Amino acid sequence: MRHVIALDVGGTGMKGALIAPSGDRLYETRRPTERARGPEAVVASVLDFADELRGHGIAEFGEPAAAAGVAVPGVVDDAAGIAVYSSNIGWRDVPMRALLTDRLHGVPVALGHDLRCGGLAEGRLGAGRGRDRFLFLALGTGIAAAIGIDGRIEAGANGYAGEIGHIVVRPGGRLCPCGQTGCLETEASASSVARAWAEAGGGQGATAAECATAVEKGDPRALAVWRDAVAALADGLVTGLTLLDPGTLIVGGGLAEAGETLFAPLRAAVERRITFQKLPLIVPAALGDAAGCLGAGLLAWDRLSVEVSA
């Protein structure tokens, strides 16, 4: 059976899969990144993992993968196939596409940003399927977005499109690692909710999930933290909606796991803030943590189609 290799490289682990033309996962597994051993070890782990997946495809389906796709964090030059920088991993200017092409015996290889790959998968296979304009928002340690247009993800002129987490929503607020104060991700990410809940009474080591549970129980301190986060998130989203006018807003990441505890007040807060804008459909992401890997597989199939038509 024809298939491609898909890899999603994270700071602590890697997801790998063999993906059919339909987008179905024929095989999937996980491996550590070996980040503690340094960026060179991570690169070696990625190449070894890809080679392992190639071998599995040959053994299982009688032929090697037709192409490969890899999703990586940080700054990515998709066109050149270079993993430019990742603070989580520590690598700089890694020619990932060339390295993988060589390791995989010359098959076409596509490289993409992990968040944009997740958005691509949600758009084609998940909550955005059949919708031509959407914004995919990931609420995790930080906040970032992928802009979906007609089945593709807009990367921007320099690869920074979708950095909605650095819209300033609370001028003079908390200092963000980007250098600004009051960025959306300092006010409404899962990590910011966890920090605020710890300070409000959740205790050291408190998590956003624990805050959500306390909200569901009616804890007034948790409700105050949650209201502040939802208000900041709605402010940032209305800016994004005004600029991009998506028909669907897909929300994923750790904070979205709170379900309607997040979505009900968020929908209401966005609706209160819009004036002339059209209220989009606001829905949870459908693919969970598989989205990045599936998106890498879709990139691989896209890359292969370009190679064939050239």
Structure description:
With 310 residues, this protein is α/β, with parallel strands linked by helices. Helix content is 41%, strand content 22%. The strands form 3 sheets. The chain has a 5-stranded mixed sheet with strand order 3-2-1-4-8, with helices on both faces. The protein has a 5-stranded mixed sheet with strand order 11-10-9-12-13. It has a 3-stranded antiparallel sheet with strand order 5-6-7. The protein is globular, with a radius of gyration of 20 Å.
Largest sheet: 5 strands, mixed
Question: What strand order characterises the main sheet?
Answer: 3-2-1-4-8
What Rg, in angstroms, do the CA atoms define?
A: 20 Å
- The total beta strand count reads 13
Return the average pLDDT rounded to an integer: 94
Approximately how much beta-strand content do the residues carry? 15-25%
Give the H and E element order.
EEEHEEEEHEHEEEHHHHEHEH
Provide the low-confidence segments as ranges: none
Task: Write the SSE topology.
Layout: E1 4-9, E2 13-19, E3 25-32, H1 39-61, E4 68-72, E5 75-77, E6 82-85, E7 92-94, H2 96-103, E8 109-113, H3 114-125, E9 133-139, E10 143-149, E11 152-154, H4 184-188, H5 190-202, H6 208-216, H7 220-244, E12 248-252, H8 260-273, E13 281-284, H9 291-309
Parallel strand pairs: 1-4, 4-8, 9-12, 12-13
Antiparallel strand pairs: 1-2, 2-3, 5-6, 6-7, 9-10, 10-11
